[in-house]
Specification:
The complex is a heterotrimer.
Chain A lengths: L1 H12 L3 H18 L1 H4 L31 H37 L1 H15 L3 H12 L3 H28 L2 H8 L4 H37 L11 H8 L8 H28 L6
Helix pairs in contact in A: 2-4, 2-11, 4-5, 4-7, 4-9, 5-7, 6-7, 7-9, 9-10, 9-11, 10-11
Chain B lengths: L4 E14 L2 E14 L3 E5 L6 H8 L7 E10 L2 E2 L5 H7 L4 E4 L3 H4 L6 H12 L4 H14 L5 H4 L9 H13 L5 E5 L7 H18 L2 E6 L2 H7 L2 E6 L2 E7 H6 L4 H9 L50 E4 L2 E3 L7
Parallel strand pairs in B: 3-8, 3-9, 6-7, 7-8
Antiparallel strand pairs in B: 1-2, 1-4, 4-5, 9-10, 10-12, 11-12
Helix pairs in contact in B: 4-5, 4-7, 5-7, 7-8
Chain C lengths: L4 E16 L5 E16 L3 E5 L6 H8 L7 E6 L2 E2 L5 H7 L3 E4 L13 H11 L5 H14 L16 H13 L5 E5 L7 H18 L2 E6 L2 H7 L2 E6 L2 E7 H6 L4 H9 L39 H5 L5 E4 L2 E3 L8
Parallel strand pairs in C: 3-8, 3-9, 6-7, 7-8
Antiparallel strand pairs in C: 1-2, 1-4, 4-5, 9-10, 10-12, 11-12
Helix pairs in contact in C: 3-4, 3-5, 4-5, 5-6
The chains are: A mainly alpha, B alpha/beta, C alpha/beta.
Chain lengths: 281, 325, 325
């Protein structure tokens, strides 16, 4: 009866109001990232010398920057970098972390312990500091940026995957597969990975927002995306110098970053409720 | 039996308003518990027995709502009390014992303090006095070395001991009614026997009424005075325990009793156990008319009409057309 | 032991280490299975009973090598399975299957029922896809389900139906031995009987050998030819099931049988209840493990551990004073 009651409650939760707002917003950001040419009013690198640090006007809806580039167009093009770098970094983190976590759980014994302790060390590294050091030495091209951020976040995936594997392995359907004579590869592929998918997706959505913040922070410090290519963090970084003379330009990229991270987090929360394996989703 | 009714439930209905439609989890049930009496509410999963017990204490959570009925207890209709007044009833006048004491007890609080908490809230006892009384209660429910055990945390105790702690907490304010929801299901048989006889002794000593919610007919036969059988949110049979076991009138009750293998019956190879066909219907699609008709071995044409509870003998009634000839 | 024995278990020990010292030696351990020997003739059913924590589930898993015993020998049809390398062991697994307790956890929620059953063939690269579909349909029919059910996911089924699916999967490779670990305990009473009947029918039809692990003595009596009663990791009584049920010799077996609540209100209160609870398997008492609860414990029982001894044909008891003398 308890479990049935839980099911009934879930039926009633129905639509999530926040999601109704969030999903069109994220769709818009996604379009901006994929097809900036289609919606940006200007070339993000084009300089309008007559409008420098202009407030929002009808020609430049969100104003212009310190050398007269259209802020709206730069935000639209910047979405590609901000979202793209973060997504690629999450993919790297996931592809490194999940196999490591699953495999480690199968190793067992001291090796398992040693690897997981090493992962713990990784987790406790101050990420922005490590990223600054790495990027300062290797230079900030996009692949380096992606891999650095990915490496910083893979331990989270490894830990989640390791814990999930241990718990799924004790479930009876895995024991049933063992009794049928299945080997570890079969079990990982058919029994374990499909059952941790939802947890990994939730983890990925939260990591995505961290990765966006880290990319923005690094670009803000001038270590991320190299100018003139725009990214939100880098725009904030350059425009912050004019905050007191002309606050407009810095507000919009900051807002874009803030709203997107908020939206990703709301999506993550929703996914977490939705995919909660306890509720059978 | 001319005992004083302690709890009278009339036409209680609790529905769940879900995205997929209304689920009539509890669909108009009547229950009576007298002082010093144990009423067993017997049903399988999905029958509505747990929702019914939660409804009595108004503990049903959204999207569930009590939509009709009255719960008369000690002169009040509990459904009409304010939330404030209801809090004074819960835990003090009506106590609840759950199936899994591990989830009902606070894992980070010493068990003695948990028992004392009710005394401090409801009886206004000081900390020292409440603790002393908690130790007394633990001794009363048969916990050895109660002074030391009062300082233990729930995880340091066995399932049987935790259930005793729950019972001690339930007894702390001398309740008039104890609702026990599957109190022995999680326990081993030898421990189950101890807890059942403890509950019985306590009921006799205190004169409280007990509403025992269970699926286990062996337990029912052991401790109940009267039995209400619930199926599909309705009471299908109701009567004194001897009547229910000796002359069950509803085919569901008959089937349920026949399903339980008798440990004292010698084995005959190849003889099948009696069973009830089909599965317990989901509350989303129960048959119309009699809710048991698609599993009933003696269903006939009239069963498409909804039967009512009809009296068969003194205090014994059943919801089945077979008894209306 | 005879040539007909399909399964022979000798001196199996399984301890779960809790803490180790600096050199990796075990300091404390849960002595889940502590030296167990028995054999099961082909085509018969052995009932394995005992309370939670007695080690019956661990023993069941050792038999099929889902759990690696620390010591002991397990012969399956004459083959020492503990000595087998991974590959031959995986081949041998076809012969022995387990039906688990929890039908909600024993099926992969992400796999269609048909695919889950067909995995048995996939793992051993048997049959063509068309043949697999056909065989799955036959298996579903054998357990009382329909061909269309293969396309559905586990959450679309009730507990009883899921257990049928788990049974179909266990039968897929035509095993000779089935370990049923509390296979009906999680089910509703009315469904329990159906599954028990199904298991009995299948045993007769396929001449299966069962190790039936359960705490429900009524059901065990219905199914078992032989009975093993476990207490704290050891077998305390072993032999012909009917004889043990009619005349239990070990005091624990007697208490266990007496504690079963009987569905007969007329016999209420006639049970003798066993005091106390099973001691912890981490720190079992010296001597006879049961002496702390035994009504007729003598000084000798505290000092010395009795071993299983044949008292009469087909009956072994580990007690210095069997039959209560």
């Amino acid at each position: 009866m308890r479990s049935m009651t839980a099911k009934l409650v879930r039926h009633a939760q129905g639509r999530n109001l926040a999601l109704v707002v969030v999903s069109p917003y994220l769709a818009l950001i996604a379009i901006m990232a994929v097809l900036p040419e289609a919606i940006a009013p200007y070339d993000p690198l084009a300089i309008d010398a007559s409008n420098i640090l202009a407030p929002p006007t009808s020609t430049h809806l969100l104003g212009t920057d310190e050398i007269g580039r259209d802020i709206l167009s730069r935000i639209i093009y910047g979405a590609r970098v901000s979202l793209g770098v973060a997504l690629a970094a999450v993919a790297v983190a996931c592809l490194l972390g999940v196999p490591l976590g699953v495999a480690t759980s199968y190793l067992g014994g001291r090796l398992e312990n040693a690897i997981m302790r090493a992962v713990d060390v990784f987790v406790s590294l101050p990420e922005i500091f490590v990223a600054i050091v790495v990027l300062a030495f290797l230079g900030g091209d996009l692949p380096t940026l992606v891999f650095t951020i990915g490496l910083l976040y893979f331990p989270q995936f490894a830990k989640v995957a390791h814990g999930m594997t241990a718990s799924i392995r004790s479930r009876e359907h895995v024991l049933a597969a063992v009794s049928l004579g299945a080997g570890p590869v079969w079990i990982i592929w058919r029994e374990i990975l499909p059952n941790m998918r939802s947890v990994i997706i939730v983890q990925a959505s939260f990591t995505l927002s961290f990765a966006m913040l880290l990319e923005a922070g690094l670009s803000f410090l001038g270590l991320g995306v190299t100018p003139p290519q725009p990214s939100w963090g880098q725009m904030v970084g350059t425009l912050k110098d004019y905050l007191f003379t002309n606050p407009w330009p810095v507000v919009f990229p900051s807002l874009a970053l803030f709203l997107t991270i908020l939206a990703v987090n709301i999506l993550g929360d929703w996914l977490q409720d939705r995919l909660n394996p306890e509720l059978g989703g | 039996m001319t005992q004083e009714a302690l709890l009278e439930v009339r036409g209680l209905a609790t529905h769940f308003f879900t995205g997929q439609g209304i689920v009539r989890a509890v669909d108009g049930i009547d229950l009576t518990v007298c002082r010093g009496e144990t009423l067993a509410l017997v049903g399988e999963s999905g029958s509505g027995k747990s929702v019914a017990s939660l409804s009595l204490l108004r503990l049903v959570e959204e999207p569930g709502r009590i939509v009709a009925g009255a719960v008369r207890f000690a002169g009040d209709d509990l459904l009409r009390l304010s939330e404030r007044e209801m809090e004074a009833v819960r835990g003090a006048k009506i106590a609840m014992i759950f199936q899994e004491p591990m989830t009902a007890l606070d894992p980070v609080q010493r068990v003695g303090d948990q028992i004392a908490e009710g005394l401090r809230v409801h009886e206004g006892l000081a900390r020292r006095a409440a603790r002393a009384r908690a130790v007394e209660l633990m001794a009363r429910v048969g916990i050895p070395d109660p002074v030391r055990r009062a300082r233990a945390y729930p995880h340091e105790m066995s399932g049987g001991m935790r259930q005793r702690v729950m019972i001690a907490a339930a007894l702390s304010c001398d309740p008039d009614l104890i609702i026990a929801d599957e109190p022995t299901t999680a326990l081993d048989v030898t421990v189950q026997a101890q807890i059942l006889s403890l509950l019985d002794d306590l009921k006799r000593e205190s004169g409280a009424g007990v509403l025992l919610i269970t699926h286990d007919l062996g337990v029912v036969a052991e401790v109940a005075d009267r039995v209400s059988v619930i199926y599909g949110g309705q009471i299908v049979e109701d009567g004194p325990v001897e009547q229910i076991f000796r002359r069950p009138a509803h085919p569901y009750t008959q089937g349920l009793i026949a399903c339980v293998p008798d440990v004292e019956l010698p084995r005959q190879r190849g003889r099948a156990l009696q069973s009830i066909a089909g599965s317990v219907p989901s509350p989303f699609d129960r048959p119309d008319g009699c809710r048991f008709r698609d599993r009933c071995p003696s269903a006939f044409a009239r069963c498409t009409e909804e039967p009512v509870l009809v009296p068969i003998a003194n205090g014994h009634s059943a919801r089945c057309w077979l008894n209306v000839r | 032991m005879s040539v007909d024995d399909l399964l022979v278990v000798r001196g199996v020990v399984r301890h779960f280490p809790l803490r180790r010292d600096l050199l990796g030696r075990t300091r404390t351990a849960v002595r889940a299975v502590d030296g167990v020997s028995f054999s099961v003739p082909a085509g018969t059913a052995l009932g394995l009973v005992g309370e939670s924590g007695c080690g019956k589930t661990t023993l069941g898993r050792c038999i099929t090598r889902l759990e690696e015993p620390d010591r002991g020998t397990i012969l399956f049809d004459g083959t020492d399975i503990l000595g087998l390398a991974k590959k031959p062991m995986r081949r041998l697994r076809r012969e022995m299957q387990t039906i688990f307790q929890d039908p909600y956890s024993s099926l992969n929620p992400r796999r269609r029922v048909g695919d889950a059953i067909a995995d048995a063939f996939g793992i051993h690269r048997l049959l063509t896809p068309a043949e697999r579909r056909e065989t799955v349909a036959e298996l579903l029919a054998t357990v009382g389900l329909q061909r269309e059910h293969a396309e559905r996911y586990p959450h679309e089924f009730s507990g009883g139906q899921r257990q049928r699916i788990a049974i179909a999967r266990a039968l897929a490779l035509k095993p000779r031995l089935i370990v049923a670990d509390e296979a009906v305990s999680a089910l509703d009473v009315s469904i329990q009987a159906q599954i028990v009947n199904l298991l009995m029918r299948l045993q007769a039809e396929y001449r299966l050998t069962y190790v039936f692990i359960s705490h429900d003595l009524g059901i065990v009596r219905l199914i078992s030819d032989h009975l093993a009663v476990m207490y704290l990791g050891r077998i305390v009584e072993l032999g012909d099931a009917e004889r043990i049920f009619t005349r239990p010799l070990h005091p624990y077996t007697r208490a266990l049988l007496a504690a079963v609540p009987r569905p007969d209100p007329a016999r209420r209160g006639q049970r003798l209840t066993l005091g106390g609870e099973p001691p912890s398997p981490i720190d079992p008492p010296p001597g006879c493990p049961f002496h702390t609860r035994c009504p007729n414990a003598q000084p000798r029982c505290r000092a010395e551990a009795p071993v299983l001894e044949a008292l009469e044909p087909d009956r072994q008891v580990a007690c210095f004073f069997p039959g209560g003398r």
